[in-house]
Write a structure and sequence with these properties.
GO terms for molecular function: 6-phosphofructo-2-kinase activity; ATP binding; fructose-2,6-bisphosphate 2-phosphatase activity. This protein is an alpha/beta fold and about 500 residues long. It is about 40% helix and about 15% strand. The structure holds adenosine-5'-triphosphate. The site of adenosine-5'-triphosphate (ATP) has 22 residues, from helix 1 and helix 5.
Amino acid sequence: MFPGQLYKTESGRLFHAGANAIILVGLPARGKTAISRSLSRYLRWLGVQTKVFSVGNYRRQIIGVEVTNDFFSPVNKATADLRLKIANACLDDMVQWFTEGGQVGILDGSNTTEERRQELVKRFKECNVHAMFIETICDNPDIIDANIRSVKVSSPDYVGWDKQDAVDDFKRRIENHVPFYTTITDLSLTFVKVINAGERIIVNKAQGFLQSKIVYYLTNLHISPRTIYFARNGISLNEQSYKADAPLAPAGHRYAENLKNFVLTLRENTATSSPSSTSPQSETPRQLTVWTSSRKRSFQTAAHFLDHEEIIVRQRSVLADRNPGVCDLMTPQEIEEKYPDECLRAKADPYRHRLPRAESYYDLANRLEKVILELEREKNDVLIVAHESVIRCLYGYLNGLPESEIPSLEIPEGVLLEVVPTAYNTEERRYKIPDTVASVNWQQQSANLMALAGNFPASPMHMDHYLPDSIGRSIHDGNTTISSSTASSPTSTPSISGGLSAATSPLS
Ligand code: ATP
């Protein structure tokens, strides 16, 4: 039997070979739903059929949101049966889904008793589905309080409630669970314990490709707030050819300088105006790191940030745009004429189809997996300067978009995308980058950047370059002729009406 195959059990039901049930365990407000959603996003990105089964959603659908905390009390016999029925309805649907070919089902519920966990193991064993538990343990009161305030008080359970009343009520809900909660001690089970939001991870009996991937993914997760920006490369001297790897055109340098000025001013404005967040880790100012590929136009766009001591620029070859293969230098019309069958196949499956000797979006997504894990791990703010295809893939991942949508995502030129990961989703703003630069000695700057790129040739896939600040400063000294007065505040630019607030400036 091979992973990916469907097979029949003795009862005649069909199951996916290598199917995994991921079962969350933990008290309320421990991040079970947040972990379920992130993990599902990641596994789908890997091409694994994944679905989250949320017991909380089943409860809300079956009995509505009007429940008192008494409902959750494990000593309340009157509601115990109903709670079990709801949990089992969710479980039955999950088992049914495995029969339809599902590979990974994620059971998002509290599953806090040993008895319930043994029942689940038995049920999944009967249908040859591997059970893996993820227990999230948190005894840091600051994290718990921040979790309640950031997501629980705005849950459907508390619509119309006073915020403090909702917090107090949710804390009572947690207290109801505490006496009946036992941590996993059965070492025959496969489990991962995530302690205090990733401070410590304990792994037991995880095996196989998928479970190893899941464990590694969990080790990268954290709950510190951060912002991810995306901007496209500047225009190069040869836009038609991938192979030429042409340097930036003067207009590209101008754009790069505008981008830098805008990002720096935006961050300054945000730092002075941002209200205090509910997260316990949000007080420290975050550094900005710029990630770029080793393609000349990307790197040279990002290199404009090198004259800022506090900004690190990282060059990563995996961030290179899709290789167009034999279609390099060809217009879309020429490709249609020369490869009509390939074009039909590409239209039918734009994500997975690969033109001759080219990379598909699927290939690119695979190449970007390590960037994704690094993005999850990263606690600084990151600006990714890259080609449209690369931004489409990374943006698609962060927003959990289906692969079919990725090839046609619109990532406009001259726009800065700001994506803030939140507990369950992302918040997004788009800013038009204003043209604030008056005069720059482009030829001199271009020559210097070319020399710099020459010092850092395209790196092999496994190697990344960290560019020391001293290199950035040496470019700045005597070569750029931008005066600080030309880099005006974005709030004063006519292209953005009413300043930078989300309400006035986003393009979408
Ligand atoms: P409930 O049982 O009420 O559904 P839950 O355990 O599913 O609660 P979430 O709704 O996921 O809790 O809580 C989200 C909050 O948990 C977010 O603020 C998120 O930042 C935080 N969080 C995410 N991962 C963890 C973790 N490993 N430990 C603690 N908190 C986390």
